[in-house]
Amino acid sequence: MTMPTFQSPVTASYEPTPGAALTLTDESALSKMVVRAAPGTAARGVLAQAFAGSRVAGNVLIAGSRPDEWMLIGPADAVATRVSEIPTDGHVSLVDWTHGRAMFRLTGDVASSAMEKVCSLDWSDAMMPNGAVTSASVAKVTCDIARNDVSGPDGGERAPSYVILCDRSFGQYLFDALLDAGEEFGISAVS
Amino acid sequence: MLLVPCPHCGPRNQSDLRLLGEAVPRPNPNTATRAEWGEYLYLRDNPADYVTETWYCRAGCRRYFTVERHQATNEFRNPPLPGDKVGNSTYTTITVGSSGKQRGANEGEAS
Amino acid sequence: MTMRRLPQQPGEVIDRSQPLKFTWNGKPAVGYQGDTIASAIAAGDNRIMSRSMKYHRPRGLLTADFWDPNAFVQVDDEPNVRSGHRLLTNGIDVGPQNVWPSLDYDVKAANQLVGRFLSPGFYYKTFIHPQKLWPAYEKVLAQFAPGGTVDYESEMAYFDKRYTHPDVVVAGGGPAGLAAATAAAEAGASVLLVEHEHHLGGHLRYGTEDDRALANGLELAARSAGVEILLDSTVTGRYEDNWLGIVQRSHPLASERLVKARAKTLIVAAGLIERPYVFEGNDRPGVMLASAARRLINMYSVKPGDRAVVLTANESGDQTVADLERAGVKIAEVVDARAGGNVTATAGSQKAVESVTLGDGSTRDADLLITAVGWTAPTSLLNMSGDRPVYDPAGARFFPDRTPDNVLVTGGIAGDGTLDQIVEHGRETGALAASRALAVAHRLQALTARAMPVSDPEPAMAPDARTPLGRDPHPELYRSTTHGIVDYSEDVGSKDLVSATKEGYDSVELLKRYTTATMGPAQGKLETVNTVAVLAEARGETIAEVGTTIWRPPYAPLTLGALAGRIFEPERVSSVHSWHVANGAKPILAGQWIRPEHYGNPQAEVTNVRENVGIIDISPLGKLDLQGADVPKLLNLLYTNKWSKLGVGSVRYGIMCAEDGVVMDDGVTGRISENRWLMTTTSSGAGSVWEWAENWLQTAHPDWDVHITPVTTSYTSINVAGPKSRELLSRLTDVPLDNDSFDYMQVRPGTVAGVEDCIMWRIGFTGELSFELHVPAGYGLHVWEALMDEGADLGIKPFGLEAQRIMRLEKGHFIVGQDTDGLTKAPTTGLQPLIKLDKDDFAGKPELAWAMGQGVGDAADAAGMDLPVLVSVQMTDSSIVPPEASQIVRPNTNEILGRITSSRYSPTLKASIGLAQVPPSHASSGTQLTVLLTNGDRTTATVQQHHAHFDPDGLRLRS
Lengths: 191, 111, 959
Known about the structure:
The structure holds three protein chains of three kinds.
Chain A (H helix, E strand, L loop, with lengths): L21 E5 L4 E7 L4 H6 L6 E4 L2 E7 L2 E6 L1 H9 L7 E5 L4 E7 L3 H6 L16 E6 L2 E7 L2 E2 L6 E2 L1 E7 L3 H12 L4 E4 L1
Chain B lengths: L2 E4 L3 E4 L4 E5 L11 H9 L7 E7 L7 E7 L5 E2 L34
Antiparallel strand pairs in B: 1-2, 3-4, 4-5, 5-6
Chain C lengths: L14 E10 L2 E7 L3 H7 L6 E2 L6 E2 L12 E4 L2 E5 L10 E4 L25 H6 L6 H10 L16 E5 L3 E4 L3 H12 L4 E4 L14 H16 L3 E3 L2 E7 L3 E6 L8 E6 L2 E4 L4 E2 L12 E3 H10 L7 E6 L2 H12 L3 E7 L6 E6 L4 E6 L4 E3 L2 E5 L2 E2 L3 H4 L6 E3 L4 E3 L7 E3 L9 H29 L37 E3 L4 E2 H9 L5 H8 L12 H12 L3 H4 L13 H5 L12 H6 L3 E5 L2 E6 L3 H10 L2 E4 L4 E6 L3 H8 L12 E7 L5 E11 L2 E6 L4 H15 L6 E4 L4 E7 L3 H6 L16 E6 L2 E7 L8 E7 L3 H11 L6 E2 L2 H10 L34 H7 L7 H4 L6 E7 L11 E3 L6 E11 L4 E8 L9 E5 L5 E6 L16
Parallel strand pairs in C: 1-7, 8-14, 9-10, 9-15, 10-11, 15-27, 17-23, 18-19, 18-23, 32-42
Antiparallel strand pairs in C: 1-2, 3-4, 5-6, 5-7, 12-13, 13-14, 16-24, 20-21, 21-22, 25-26, 28-29, 30-31, 32-38, 33-36, 33-37, 34-35, 35-36, 38-41, 39-40, 40-41, 43-46, 43-48, 44-45, 44-47, 45-46, 47-48
């Protein structure tokens, strides 16, 4: 038998609004790998990413999600390549979170205003600059969040963009809660 | 809504953390008398003064840490700095009983 | 209809090009865009706005703003609307409250004739005995309850919530607040200014031409400085570290929006609130504060009366005289309180002032009495910041004492001065606030891991070099020589306060609670100081000696809708959820999970599992991935049994206890590979066990190498149960499933229905041969559907939680939290063999040692504990299923021995079965128990030999 198609936790369908200033994209199908590495392990040197920050290497977002935890997010083959480069000697563990976590991307100049409606963190550029990684309660669901600015919804200049991950089972709820928060900013879903 | 000095994340809203109460040393489980164990489980001084407490950065870095907080003024003293060793084998800070059962990480606390 | 509307006034805020129609008290009425409901009603020559809550006395406008205690109205289906504040909109139906049958004629106004029966504490004293009559009293008294009418058919409104982190929040948009906000913004701070009213400028807005020009200039400056301004919004509370609650009533999309702000500095510029005067007839329609008259004339172009007496003790009162004259109101007398003048009473009909008695005993014909006797400092936000304001008799009001560094005070609440001085103080305060806020912002940024790194040193905080505001002398005017109303909204008079004081309620906090003075919707803004003054007079002390009540949040009442905000109720579903919905599952909420309780007939689902094969979606089952060399140590510490020798491919059951020996969770953990374990927990314990394990690792054993990663939602978990489960699964996987290859209590990784990386356990909660599949969740629905398809000829049916509960009860498996409670220590469960006291350590070990008579200590400690025992029971009458938690009592008595913890009808055994907690004396097999049913009947049950009612030797699950 061949592998079936990956099913996103966002099962409802949405009508996208062309030209929306704020978009919410379901990226749950991307590969997500959790790496845990104890102090002193070689893996840390290869990951070379401090807690609460991130960088994009190749096609993979490498995020320092906890003091001893990293998340590698991207297309499956690119993530697999990165992971294969991580030495596993010492106290290092790998867990595939692709299926465990829903993942959305909220993009647009007003994205921080929408986040203010569902999360108590300070979303200013100083406190949550591009590259910043944190976790927090979003609409009462604990999420990992990385700011990873990309081209805006209109394809033009880079716009603030937040990558938001939560437990897969909350996926549909959180997607809808974010859409509700973005309604006053003319949000459009891309699923 | 207190700002709690998480040594890893930095100051965070109290609702992002869980307070486990005063950090008390755990007696040796093989030699403790009933009185000693009972004191460990149930008895706290609750002074109007600084008390070393254990907090869990529930919605954030998921690290446990201890910090002194004044029980009357809520002021924090000597917060641990990033990189300070958090674990301290002289303290366990386990809450007891099912009344003290730590609620699920995703069961939202109002924030 | 607009007989009291004046020609255009220079400062009016109404738009005469936009007339609005509404109904007042059943009759058509008109107003203009910009009118408050109250100003539009007053413009229609209506003096009576409402009747008071207790005595049903007619009441007219007193303050004509947010705080007006007499202007609560019903607007369509919304009760208790503050008509002095709410803007008029087209087409609304406005009605008075506390009137029956009508505003003009009210039956309950007879209450005022029997006023002495309604003295303070009347209800407490009169209706407390006999207690059994209370239901009857309640019905009658409910008719007298004040307030409007709630329409239960009303549609839900949309409320909103937002968080914000400004450097500086300014509470109050008067001259000082505006100047402060502007200065703070110019100094580089982000500033949020919150104004209670619809207009900026505070008292200037109803002042002179120059006042308005100043207000406009200040507003323009604030807006150009980039200050974010929220109008018609209130800072309702200040909490630790300047966490502020702000209710925004002016949001275009939501009924109300709750803004939670973390301000680095809070500037309190709440201004001053004019205080009513206490004298006989002070609540007769036509008695009005000077500020109310000025608002009506200058902002809404409404002539408040025809012939006025003005009692003035300050400049604002003096200016009112000019305003009244300009509006064409004849001045019958200006009484200057500074020169010893006074007013002692009004006379007239119930509905209107007709004459005013002055301090010298003479009377003046008038339909309007304006009082300007002083100001109350609304120090709520200061109280909430830890300040205890101090009364100054020379200034006749309370002044701030000491606030924390992150709270600054400016404007009238801080002191007096010329407008220039007040604006200057505001500016200095704003600059100081910005300096402090920017230092705090810098520190927060430097401490916050995710924030942009800071390179500059922390900016120094400027010293507080402000020129303090002065204090103008003001006569102390609280009560005249006569008695009158102190709390308009609660209908409490000064006489009531005096008599309550004589009854012994002579501290301000007691007096407040006993008489309810200051406890109404004005929240003390108008009444507190008068209450304190009357108490001080009755006690023969000064106001400073009596002290005041502490103002607590909220500053102004807010709706429950605003507090609730947008409703976040996270719900969780598995990957198979859509299938469940499409196939008629009856949903049940378990924690946050929406799960199938059954698909129509749980009894049939049980029978099908026992005879054929069924599948259940158990995705919520807690799952933790454990990796590291020290995992066995952690398992030994968390569970009561031993884990060191668990081999690859095996699973084991264990129970976890808290440090007091109480059962916390249970589940199975399997060793998937040399270095990896998968722990399962109860569905509700998934989060707590994870935190519990992390706690031990991080605080007690940071040297252990263990990584815990929650993977509950990584897998769709499906239990395939029933005698035909092996046959079914063998069609979908190459993993050998025979007993020799894959025995009971073993685990195998493998591919199922084409999905790689599945994990299969062979365990069974139902008591049948069963395989628990953990499938990568993105393919969960696919595997579920494949099982349903492949199992069609085997009689496969899905089963829900209810069938599983019945089957586990038939097998006598307990559920943590259902059959155990917050006091149930592990030995009660009967699993003593799983409690290994010879381990060096595990959570709860000493308690369990004492419980089992093997603990440290003397003979008494060694005797063990007389713990309840969990037993299986069968009811004598199989048609009776006692509700869970039914008591087990000693025969012929009500002495409680224990309780039924679980009960169901067993379709397999055709019997009523259960689990029960009983004392050891009643735990042996064959014991007859008496069960008290909720209807009072008694039935009997028999203790069984085994926990399992069905297949006690477990032959089926090992088959």
